[in-house]
Amino acid sequence: MTERSTETEKRLKLPKTYSPYLDLRQTEMAIKFIKDTFQRRLAHALNLQRISAPLFVKSNTGLNDNLNGIEKPVSFGTKDGTYVEIVQSLAKWKRDALRRYGFAAGEGLYTDMNAIRRDEIVDNLHSFYVDQWDWERVITEGDRNLTFLKTIVRRIYTVIRDTEKKVCEHYPLLPEPFLPTHIHFVHSEELEQMYPNLTPKEREDAIAKQYGAVFIIGIGYPLKNGLPHDGRATDYDDWITETENGYHGLNGDIIVYYPILEQAVELSSMGIRVSPSSLKLQLQMRGEMRKASLPYHSSLINGELPLTIGGGIGQSRLCMVYLRKVHIGEVQASIWPDQVIKACGKVGIPLL
User: How many CB atoms lie within 10 A of CB 231?
Assistant: First the structure.
């Protein structure tokens, strides 16, 4: 048995027996209902226009998302010799698209993003296939502050909460809504002080269980032990800017406590994006100044790209939570290791 498969089995959470609230066909219909409802409400809340998005981008442009900086994208060469990579997210592509499409401050875009993350360790919440609403909105210099970030987070969380209510009304077989009315804000540095003896994941579980819904600010900035709460690339979210009480970061994650799995579930990663100055600082901190000469990064440093805020909202994650599923494979068609398929089958989990 490989090391990866052993880690997969350790991370998999399975009930002794399981009976989903909706069968396969009902689930497929509910997925469409959720996606149609959520994206319409999100577009209205943030003033976003839907646009088309690529499945792959050219290598060596700097446009692909490096995630934590260690994940390798799936890549291939075309017959004309072009080397391309399947996207891992559209975090940087969207900012360039806002420039090319001529969006103004207060306007934005959203798109259906489909990605392959080959290095993912799959479990109840993680898959090699990723689907999310990637969104991005033009802002002004005066918007680059924590107050504005929290305003946008509250708007998104309201859409998340109100959509849950709508889904429960439309499918009365489901249990009552469980998401709280308000979302709580906490800095990752503050979270470390609150739970110094817990791992970052354990801290998320603890704070999410306490408040129900939390936005963790400043993911990417190093904590006292020199490591960030979680990995963040250097070239899209601004996690270095000092904000309040000596804390850092204009980005973060929306997490909720999911009682079905008794743990925190991340629904969205988002933030105010790097400015030319904060990009250079983050590249220097991580020893990645070589990226400054890539086409995307040099355009940003030269002030050719608009200031923006943006993020990704997991489509399958939302569907899983709304429909009270125990495994993300119940709401998306992906590939799973044989031991996962066998284990899920034993307890009655129907993978799509």
Answer: 14
Neighbours of 226 (CB within 10 A): 6
75-77 sheet: strands from edge to edge: 56-58, 83-86, 75-77
β-sheet bridge partners, residue 114: 131
Domains recognised in the chain with CATH numbers: 3-346 (3.30.930.10)
Q: What is the DSSP string of 301-318?
A: HTT-S--EEEEEEEHHHH
Torsion over CA: 206, 228, 318, 47 (sign): positive
Residues recognised as catalytic: 65, 117, 132, 253, 266, 269
Residues 9 and 17: their CA atoms lie apart, in Å, by 17
pTM of the model: 0.91
* Structural contact between residues 240 and 221, judged by C-beta atoms closer than 8 angstroms: yes
Tokens of 128: 């090699």
Provide CB contacts within 8 A for 28, sequence distance 6+: 352
| 318-341 tens-digit pLDDT | 999 999 999 999 999 888 888 888
